Amino acid sequence: MLIDDDNMTNFLNKIIIDNAEIVNTVVRERSAQSGLLYLSDSISTKGYLPFPDIIFIDKQMPLGSGWDFINDLITIKQNFPVQPIIVMLTSHVKAEDISQSSRIKELYGLYSKPLSPEILNSVITKYYLLRSERDINETIM
After folding, report:
1. Contact 58, 4 (CB under 8 A)
2. Which range marks the domain in which residue 84 is found?
3. What per-residue confidence (pLDDT) applies to 139?
4. Which of 3, 46, 79, 95 could be disulfide-bonded to 35 (CB atoms 3.0-4.6 Å)?
């Protein structure tokens, strides 16, 4: 899932993901609110709308920031069929962003825009390692 208020950024990020040939569907939303609404609708339709494994969200948008999205997502995540990997993309990585991101366990990465094949590969590698570790831990318990 891509959440960015800039259509061109969403378009270019979708091309990067499509070229990697790793998913069947890339959902694009233009605000934090529409992203949350999509996730809620995906849960309520029980699979009719695909639920994302990874969410790339812009840090700064006019109708709610990436930080707002994560705070709101935390309140509804217990209803999710899987816990998505959330990656924040930003035009300017600041020291306070790094500090804030390190305190939010739901955020798996903070990267400079634009999304690149290298960033995508890094996120995918981390995602599958995390998913494998979760599966192993659930099997052991």
Report:
1. yes
2. 2-140
3. 38
4. 3
> Which residues of the chain have a pLDDT value below 50?
136-141
SS3 letters across the chain: CEECCCHHHHHHHHHHHHHHCCCCCCCEECCHHHHHHHHHHHHHCCCCCCCCCEEEEECCCCCCCHHHHHHHHHHHHHHCCCCCEEEEEECCCCHHHHHHHHCCCCEEEEEECCCCHHHHHHHHHHHHHHHHHHHHHHHHC
CB 4 within 8 A of CB 35: no
Residue 88, strand partner residues: 57, 110
d(CA 134, CA 20): 24
The residue type at 61: M
The residues facing 89 across adjacent strands are 58, 111
Q: Is the pTM of this model over 0.85?
A: yes
CA dihedral 107, 103, 130, 88 (to 10 degrees): 20
- CATH number, domain at 82? 3.40.50.2300
Domains contained in the chain, number = 1
